Fold these 3 entries.
Entry 1:
Amino acid sequence: MKGGSALDKAQRVPLASIYRVFFEIGLFSFGGGLVSWIYRDVVEIRKWMTKEEFLPGIALSQVMPGVSSTNCAIYVGQMLRGAAGAATALVAMLTAPFLCALAAAYAYKWLLKLPGFQEAMVGVAAAAIGMLLRTGFDAAKSTTKGLAPIFVMGVTFAAVGIFRLPIIPVVAVMGPLSVALAWPKSAAPEDAS
């Protein structure tokens, strides 16, 4: 696994394995935080991708239209097995929640009568938030070299999280600013040689 990209590993990851992993993620995760689960299974447990290969998928899944977890599943599937991997990961990710949603809709009134059901759902949501924070901290640690990235993250967090500004204009301003602040660092070594 060492030294190769996700595309080099494509032949080693069977579609059935991709389906099983994403089916389990879709089945056993509640209340959000699925990108964190995908990261844990794909990067830390199975080592199908490196952290450096996975982190762009987090960024893409957040800025693309649609649900970030399904966007991330498509990204991982594409990196591992191309279009077939993307389709497999997406279908697997959605199969179990679809069936569970049908069953839950059928049993909704009965579930609400169960003692502690609502409290259990609050606990599951809290765990999902904790997993999202962990993934955010991991991403921040590997991308924050200097004050510029910390500044951009802080301003973006304040604009969207505290002041509740719409995310599209914030990204439209902060994205180019982030690239502009990072540009001199990435261009400097090439100019020196």
Entry 2:
Amino acid sequence: MGIPNGSDLKDLVDGELKTFTVGETIAITQLKHCLEQIIDNGVEFEDSKVFEKLKQTIYVGFTRNNEFVKSKTVNEHNSPNHYQKLAEDYGYISAKIKEAYMSGKELNTITGPNNLLQIRTKASKSATGHYTPLCYNGSQLKDKYMAFYLCADFGKEISNE
């Protein structure tokens, strides 16, 4: 019995639960539902859906063989430096997204300057065998969906603490 799938932004009433395989990136949220905040509203990290997802998170790491490694709760109080780096990376990535949208260029993988947060593709083919393009206001940003991720080194850090 686990947490049921649903459309709520967070898994838990007061935060998020992220299980991950040590050495792999950790998916945060799809980029599509963040585009209005980034492109039209210029929302800062602290007011963003990405922050809302990550403001209190229980990370649970496993090996590739599905063996438990470690868990840790991360929030602004116990890890203020982490959230400062996330905010810097979010701002950098948001500026690149807005720049691509304004210039009509296609998005690619973008990693923030702290190598903590990135966007990259996260897509499955439809029943017709095609990817759904990532579009906003009639402009195609990518030929497939993308998502925000925490880079793999973050999970390694948690596992080694």
Entry 3:
Amino acid sequence: MSAPQDDVEASRAPLMEHLIELRSRLIRALIAIGIGFVICFGFADKIFNLLLWPYEFAAGPQKELQLIYTAPQEYLLTQIKLALFGAMFIAFPIIAMQIYKFVAPGLYKNERAAFYPYLIATPILFFTGAAFVYFLAMPLAMKFFLGMEQAGAPGQAGIHLVARTSEYLSLIMTLILAFGICFQTPVILTLLARAGFIDSAWLKTKRKYAIVIVFAVAAVLTPPDVISQFALAVPTLLLYEISIYLVRMVEKKRAAESAEPA
């Protein structure tokens, strides 16, 4: 066998090992999602009632809420979506751990230690974003929508919000995902800084572009009302400023390490 063929065979074996390892990690993640799905589907109605709290808070105790579904299978499909959504929350720590275990063998010991804070910060920031939606953004959005109702009067039709179960669930899930992802800004930017792709000076010079992009993303991800857009854009911009501070800390630490004698 020639030398080039030997090199191909030598590289093929590690590749197959990596693919087998990746398959096993994916299977474990899917099992975790499956278990979470079964659990959440069994409590889907209770979880949905829990997600109704922002709507109930915005409406106030004097208003009796009523949601509808207009197709026989609609509420069942809503429960399936809800169960899958809850399963991703439950399985997220396991999924993150599987990703880390797949990547960790290729990292040096000091790189693994540096990776731990990001592994911890990612779910914390995501759940912080979800809590921000649940306790602030969603109640504000529902107050805005309920404020558009019109009481019936002589010669004037009454206009009242009677939400569909699927549409309400889609709205709150979209907001939770949008805020959860946007709250990852410090993690993403700090990782890019550690990799050497960006620095704090670059982030400062691009601040005005970041403001435009953040508001554009907020307009796409949130309902078409100013309150929801600002509720997403303002915390994201605050996190951008925090990211600049964290990136500066990374730069100072790197400078201190390079100044130490070998």
